[in-house]
Amino acid sequence: MIVKVAVPGPFLTPLDYRFDLAESPAPQVGVRVRVPFRNKELIGLVMAVQATPDYDVAKLKSIMAVLDAEPIFDADHLAFLAWAASYYHEPIGEVVQAALPKKLRAGDPLEIEGEEVWRLSQAGQSLQSADLPKNAKQQHALLAFLQTEQAGWSAAQLNARLTSWRAAMKKFMAEGWVTSHRGLCLPKSDFGVKPSHILNAEQQSAVQAVADLPPDQFKAFLLQGVTGSGKTEVYLGMIEAVLARGQQALVLVPEIGLTPQMVARFSAALQQPVATLHSGLNDSERLCAWHLIRTGQVKVLLGTRSAVFAPFADLGLCIIDEEHDLSFKQQEGFRYSARDLLVRRAFAEQVPVVLGSATPSLETLHNAQTGRFEHLRLTQRAAKAKLPSIKLLDIRGERIQEGVSRPLQVAMQRHLDAGGQVLLFLNRRGFAPVLMCHECGWQASCPSCDANMTLHYSGQHHGHLRCHHCGYQAAAPQTCPSCQSTEFVQVGQGTERLTETIQSWFPDKTVLRIDRDTTRLKGSMAELTEQARSGAADILIGTQMLAKGHHFPKVTLVGLLDIDQGLFGADFRAAERMAQLILQVAGRAGRGEAAGEVLIQTHHPDHPLLLTLIRDGYDAFAAKALQERQIAKLPPFRFQLMLRAEATHPQAGMAFLHALKQSLQETLAQWPAEEAKPVEIWGPVSAPMERRQGRYRYQLLLQAPKRAQLQSLFAQVEPLIYQSPLTRKVRWSVDVDPQEMN
Ligand code: ADP
Ligand code: ZN
Ligand code: ZN
Q: Average of pLDDT values for 209-235?
């Protein structure tokens, strides 16, 4: 018997192994096996079994162990993974790796024992804080905590919420006040009160469009709803209908969007436990969530990008929120689009899929316009909220202080006086993006990247420099390395500097900065957004982290400080991204009862796309932008495939891509002219940032009117790459439907 095993590594197809273990039943398709490879052992997944070998199996190595009694993935799911491998030209073993939780990749058993969970015993339940020693703070905190949840808490959950608890727990155990047992990581049983919204007519008909579909039917929907229109309520309505049929739902959200508040909102509305998969979980928690969904014990999964691979017992609906968000595209390694895979998955499983956004990507809009997706719309804000008014502030010739123009400063004062909250958006973290010598003009740049280092203080007295591209850090110099001068200028604003400025202008107001630096610690994002939401902070300053889906009902003024750079990016998607960002940030204003105002500072108040966006809205903007794309023969009217190569040696990547281009052209020369002619090959050229992390980077772009042309062209050349000795010196990658041209 030949067993085809997907193992991690650069192998285009599964590897063949022999099965001759006497003591183990033959492996089924979809189970994990341990196999020898060179002088290592690898864990792989059985993709196929060939009972009657068509060649001599004596030369094959034998499977060492079969790890699972039952398949981890069913045949449909395996087919989905195989499809992803072939579409993205990613080795199947790597796709399987992406689909498995780390513990399963490492060979842990599929059946999980569960983690240790502590809860109050019978005796402990009557315990009151007065029964504890007065100064035993830890014990008081632990008791209060245990009283909130009958089902108990795991170590991971306790760690996330209490600074120290083990000593107190030991004491409680000794007293017999708590019991411990191994339980599944079942989400909490207390779902809170079910809120009762009455859906408005548009929301209702959107829900109905999905609920009315016969079961087991694929259909793709674009749910385009302005910010605050109640898209989440619509998702919940759709999910309820699916749950009523006994099926499960998968909801993908951007990394930033998956907040504890969102999870709580889902489980309260659905009165069910909701499983989550995101980067904040540890390996056990991931495996557990995965297990609960795979076995059907939990019906709803809220997850980020990689949750698209999670196996379901009976999937009935797929949803992706903020579908335009770039975080759904994996930008390294296996470069998949979770959005596109989700649509494919829904098709394979014959279930509906809903792509939601206030600012849909042009690809998705195009799909809606050509009839591939049904277009559902929510044109109004839910409840009493109104859409904010958006105005461009022409700051040419205006006095700008620390990046803030006088009219914006005045507007801030006005809104604060009226009791409103103000949000300032500046998409640059740190103190200043450039540190320059005042004498000779020397600038602090990264030793391994073609980029400036950003100056940070983060509360310390002495500044330090950080490269935002490779993470390199260094103390800020005291004297200029070039001329020994001690005079430096800090050029430009980052959120850190802006916060300092704003705090000095409004000394009695609470200013809150929300960016990657202030939210690095676990739980801090939740804490900061809660302060923002409750109104405990008066002024919010943040990067695009603040733009994503947050509901801050007290914000009445939103100011966008520095958007001009984004208008003129080298990437053909720059304007689209900018428009999405502007409307998403603007959408944070006026979500409560008070009306919202949005002010955008710009030196380019006549920029045509910007004008269209502000005057006529996203649809008009998108129509224009799509027209431009069509004329320029760019996606979504063309398909692209990007090949990248990088090496520490300058030019090695370029040489590799030149060789590759030649192979591609030779292949094309054999094609019938009418198929070959529309395929374009651009480059190779150096990447916009040629050197990053000490590597010189180059790219080659393929473009064609039909996807199939690119797919088959690259598939013909791919085996040559895998055999090429050049790959020893360069790191190369293939990016199907690239989202960024960097
Ligand atoms: P979106 O996801 O479209 O930005 P949300 O779903 O977060 O919007 O809804 C915005 C706010 O409006 C939320 O506070 C939500 O509870 C409220 N809301 C949504 N739909 C309704 C409704 N039909 N009636 C009352 N309030 C609603
Ligand atoms: Zn100098
Ligand atoms: Zn760097």
A: 94
- C-alpha 321 – ligand 1 centre gap (Å): 14
Distance separating alpha carbons of residues 65 and 483, to the nearest angstrom: 66
CB 337 within 8 A of CB 318: no
Indicate whether residue 227 lines ligand 1 (CB < 6 A). Answer: yes
- CA–centroid distance, 533 to ligand 1, in Å, is 15
Any atom of ligand 1 within 6 Å of the Cβ of 321:
no
Question: Cα–Cα distance between 241 and 210 in angstroms, integer?
Answer: 9
Token code pair at residue 106? 């490492």
Ligand 1 pocket: which of 320, 322, 551 to mutate (most atoms within 8 A of CB): 551
Q: How far is the CA of 464 from the centre of ligand 3 (A)?
A: 14
Domain 639-736 in the same topology as domain 201-378: no
Measured from the CB, is residue 225 less than 6 Å from ligand 1?
Answer: yes
Does CATH number 3.20.20.70 belong to domain 639-736?
no
Architecture of domain 2-105: 3-Layer(aba) Sandwich (3.40)
Q: What is the signed CA dihedral for 124, 129, 133, 139, rounded to 10 degrees?
A: 70
CA–CA separation, 293 vs 304, rounded Å? 15
Q: Is 510 in the pocket of ligand 1 (CB under 6 A)?
A: no
CA of 445, nearest ligand number: 3
Distances, alpha carbon 587 to alpha carbons 257, 328, 477, 534, in Å: 15, 21, 41, 18
CA of 548, nearest ligand number: 1
**pTM of the predicted model as reported, rounded to 2 decimal places:** 0.89
Environment class of 396 (CB within 10 Å of its CB; exposed 0-12, middle 13-18, buried 19+): exposed
Q: Is the CB of 556 inside a 6 Å radius of any atom of ligand 1?
A: no
Task: Output the CA angle 210-211-212, nearest 5 degrees.
Answer: 90
- pLDDT per residue as tens digits for the range 570-616: 789 999 999 999 999 988 888 888 889 999 999 999 988 889 999 99
Please give the residue that has the higher pLDDT: either 148 or 582.
582
45 in Cβ contact with 107 (< 8 Å): no
203 lines ligand 1 (CB under 6 A): yes
Report whether residue 268 contacts ligand 1, using a CB cutoff of 6 Å. no
Percent of the chain exceeding pLDDT 70 equals: 98
Domain boundary assignment for the chain = 2-105, 116-182, 201-378, 389-430+494-632, 639-736
83-87, 258-262, 532-536, 596-600: the lowest-pLDDT one: 258-262
Rounded to an integer, what distance in angstroms lies between the CA atom of residue 710 and that of residue 680?
A: 10
pLDDT at 189 over 70: no
Rounded to a whole number of angstroms, the distance between the first and last alpha carbons of the chain is 47
CB 303 within 8 A of CB 252: yes
Place of tokens 């695009």: 544
Contact of 537 with 508, CB cutoff 8 Å: no
What is the C-alpha radius of gyration for the chain, rounded to an integer number of angstroms? Answer: 28
231 lines ligand 1 (CB under 6 A): yes
Q: Which of 329, 362, 334 is nearest to 740 (CA)?
A: 329
Nearest ligand, measured from the Cα of 387? 1
Q: Where are the alpha helices (DSSP H) in 395-494?
A: 406-417
Q: Span 201-378: which CATH code?
A: 3.40.50.300
**224, 226, 231, 233: residue to mutate for ligand 1 pocket, most atoms within 8 A of CB:** 233
CB of residue 383 inside a 6 A radius of ligand 1: yes
Tell me the CATH architecture of domain 389-430+494-632: 3-Layer(aba) Sandwich (3.40)
- Which residues are close to ligand 2, an ion, with C-beta < 5 A? 437, 439-440, 442, 480, 482-483, 485
Q: Is the CB of 519 under 6 A from ligand 1?
A: no
Cβ(5)–Cβ(14) below 8 Å: yes
